[in-house]
Design brief:
By secondary structure, the protein is of the alpha/beta class. It has helices at 16-19, 21-32, 74-98, 121-127; strands spanning 3-9, 41-47, 60-69, 101-110. It has 4 helices and 4 strands. The longest helix has 25 residues, at 74-98. The protein is elongated and about 45 Å long. Pfam families: CHMI. One of its GO terms (molecular function) is 5-carboxymethyl-2-hydroxymuconate delta-isomerase activity.
Length: 128
Amino acid sequence: MPHAWIEYSGNIADQTEVETFGRCVHAAMTEAGIFPIAGIRIRINRIDDCLVGDMNPDNGFVHLSLRIGEGRDAQTKQEAADLIFDRTSSHLKPLADRARLAYAMEMQEIPSAYSYKMNNLHKHLKAS
C-alpha cells in the first residue's frame, strides 16, 4: 500500500495533463514521504462509457481514489492527502482552464486485518 486508481473520461484522453497524470500522482505520493515506494501501485483507466454532469459531451472528469494501509495518525494522513490533492489539482489546472473538467480525489484507509500482501519489491529496491 498505497494503491491509486485513476479514472478519466475518454473525451480528455489526448490532453497532456491526462497523459502525464499517473506520473504526477506517483511523484506526489512519493513527496508525501509516508508511503513505501515498493508499495505504490497506480492503475489508470480510461472510461469511455460515462455521463458527466448535465450530460454535455464536452464535460470531462478525472477521479483519483487512494487506498492506504492503517497505522498513521489523522494529522499525517490529512497532510499527505492535502499535498497529493494540491499537486494533482495544480497539474490539472491548465486543462480545467480551457475545458469543462470535474476532478475529485478521495483517500481511504484499509484495516490491516483485511489487507493481505506478498511483495518482494522492497528487497529488490534495496539491492538497486
